[in-house]
Amino acid sequence: MNSKVALITGVTGQDGSYLAELLLEKGYLVHGLKRRTSIFNTDRIDHLYRDPHDRDQRFFLHHGDLTDSASLMRVIQHVEPDEIYNLAAQSHVAVSFDEPEYTANADGLGALRILEAVRILGMEKKARFYQASTSELYGLVQEVPQRESTPFYPRSPYAVAKLFAYWTTINYREAYGIYACNGILFNHESPVRGETFVTRKITRALARIAVGLQRELYLGNLAALRDWGHARDYVDMQWLMLQQEEPEDFVIATGEQYSVRDFVEHAAAELGVTVGFEGSGVDEVGIVEHVENRDVRMTPGDVIVRVDPRYFRPTEVETLLGDPSKAHAKLGWQPRTSFAALVKEMVRADYQLARRDALVTMAGFPALEHHE
Ligand code: NDP
Ligand code: GDR
């Protein structure tokens, strides 16, 4: 069988792991770009990896970095991909205010470096290119809901860098005829979402509070509104976008919106706990009102959520709501996972992890602690 070859940058990340799984199921040979780290960070893809000595290996990892043109050129030349999915990025919006130059380099110039490598290697007609664009481009929103034609107004170094990558993708498509497209993806989450993004931070903390490993959860802007989908559904769309006759850009979203506060309430309800919010601004708190689950170590009256201004951003994106009708009409794509099902899956997974950590602690071993 003549398998298609895919190269995924950011393969160790949330989307990279779901996409690698999807492409392997479809019979692709999958190559992933991985940067050097001082400790193992392949947890999300370990289940896909085989010993390099296995004959039927279909998944390969290569060291490289989006800030290092030579490494990108070397890997693309060696792999000769039919499809390149550029998912690698410094993807945390708040961190981009602390590391603006690095974020611009990796997230903005990174896409340019890949496209330039494709051009220099003469692969314009061979390699199709997917760019992980983002709803953060809309920032200070100019239209509700946001669709492909909505004007952009980026509100962070992250979004500004992604805007550069967005237009570079379009420019290389028009200038050199490369099959290159942008998926403008709204927030998507999963049990393997990075622990410092708000959804995972909430499900992880509430699960740990439920088993007695933690007392409180500190959050920033509770009023922020997002359109949250499931990463598994969204990587289907990344693949579909590269299978069309003509390259185009698509918004991927659910078309439903919830606040951070709503997310906390839904996650708590999944644990059998009712949480209500009182106060306002930095004095707002989330208080346990009712506990139905006898295994949960929470009592009515407990304050489990507090606001910490440390998590506010210098410029915030208050509201995002996507209109995925183009993806639906042209590609037949629809998200399969509801908001309730997403929250349930994340809470259940984090509750299992919290129970495991609680058992380790009870057996006398130190609790695993991680700090933001
Ligand atoms: P993650 O943060 O989970 O993964 C990012 C990946 O990029 C990781 O594999 C990371 O490696 C890698 N990476 C970071 N910097 C570099 C670099 N300089 N060189 C090479 N690799 C690097 O992000 P997601 O999976 O959630 O998102 C995937 C992409 O989609 C990102 O580009 C993100 O900006 C974008 N996006 C995400 C959305 C979401 O809601 N999840 C929505 C819209 C867009 P390591 O593991 O070593 O850190
Ligand atoms: P976002 O995701 O910035 O939308 O970027 P994040 O989960 O970080 O924030 C969502 C909203 O929640 C508010 N918030 C908090 N956020 C974090 N991280 N921690 C908190 O304690 C907290 N409290 C409230 C934020 O202010 C924000 O309004 C994600 C990333 O995956 C990007 O890479 C991607 O491009 C966009 O989604 C679409």
UniProtKB/TrEMBL annotation:
Every NAD(P)-binding domain range: 7-346
Cofactor: NADP(+)
Pfam families listed in its UniProt record: GDP_Man_Dehyd
NADP listed as a keyword: yes
One GO MF term: GDP-mannose 4,6-dehydratase activity
Record keywords, A-Z: Lyase, NADP
Catalysed reactions listed for this entry: GDP-alpha-D-mannose = GDP-4-dehydro-alpha-D-rhamnose + H2O
InterPro entries listed in its UniProt record: GDP_Man_deHydtase (IPR006368), NAD(P)-bd_dom (IPR016040), NAD(P)-bd_dom_sf (IPR036291)
Matching SUPFAM superfamilies: NAD(P)-binding Rossmann-fold domains
EC number: 4.2.1.47
One BP term from GO: 'de novo' GDP-L-fucose biosynthetic process
Functional summary from the UniProt entry: Catalyzes the conversion of GDP-D-mannose to GDP-4-dehydro-6-deoxy-D-mannose.
PANTHER family: GDP-MANNOSE 4,6 DEHYDRATASE, GDP-MANNOSE 4,6-DEHYDRATASE
The family this protein is said to belong to: Belongs to the NAD(P)-dependent epimerase/dehydratase family. GDP-mannose 4,6-dehydratase subfamily.
Record's protein name: GDP-mannose 4,6-dehydratase
Organism of this sequence: Trinickia fusca
